[in-house]
Amino acid sequence: MLPTTTYNPSSQGNGAPNSSDSARYTAGAKRYKYLRRLFRFKQMDFEFAIWQMLYLFTSPQMVYRNFHYRKQTKDQWARDDPAFLVLLSIWLCASTIGFGFVLGMGFFETIKLLLWVVFIDCIGVGLLIATLMWCITNRYLMKPQSKGYDVEWGYAFDIHLNAFYPLLVILHFIQLFFINHVIIRDGIIGCFVGNVFWLVGIGYYIYVTFLGYSALPFLKNTVALLYPFALLVIFFLLSLGLGWNFTKGLCWFYKYRVQ
Asked: Which of 56, 94, 129, 204 has the fewest CB atoms lying closer than 10 Å?
């Protein structure tokens, strides 16, 4: 269940910032405060971050209800606690090491793969996607009567992290147990199993992304963010017909990176 302290508005009386206090913070000040807390583990709420990770699989709508609460109490949609990012980084490191083990990589090859995955695949691609979605939503999805409102870049990045976590668990953890024994074997079964993991993982990413932006009351036509589902299903069926095994391609790409 959700920790009771998270949703307790009375905590403002114990020194927690209220809306008027937080409104004085500029975007740069909020970013500095977030990065400063990144190295203060005792100030992070890891219990609540774990709760968010669990509910991103079972009921992601509940996670975005907390973002509403944060906006009401701290006047910002984006997270002010880096605990989720820290736990996601740990998950990413552990799963990448597991991938290196499954692919038979040595120690230095695994470290090289880890650096690629963390700084390019997660952070680099995440910054790019968050910036792209931030531009698209602020330019094309704002309601006409929503002057004075905008999508925070930090919130766009949080949406990416929320959507990336289920994708990471599905493709970088659960799939590991099927790679050597099922997926990379020749034949339609391995191709089907591997591509189903990609279908579910990317489908989860699209759905959680849609929920994140549809939670903002000043955006319109957010259902358009679900349109890639149709392309995803078509691409999945096409891959089966042509025998494209995405997981086998990923394994080859990972090995190519560290050579």
From this structure: 94
Q: Which of 121, 150, 168 is nearest to 213 (CA)?
A: 150
Contact 65, 2 (CB under 8 A): no
- CA atoms of 204 and 189, how far apart (whole Å): 22
Question: What is the average pLDDT across 113-125?
Answer: 91
R_g of the chain, CA atoms, integer Å = 20
| Strand, helix or coil for residue 254 | helix
Please give the share of the chain, as a percent, with pLDDT higher than 70. Answer: 84
Please compute the mean of the pLDDT values over residues 23-32 and round it to a whole number: 56
pTM for the predicted model, two decimal places? 0.84
Q: How far apart are CA 38 and CA 90, in angstroms?
A: 14
Q: How many CB atoms lie within 10 A of CB 169?
A: 18
> Residue for token digits 């793969």?
113
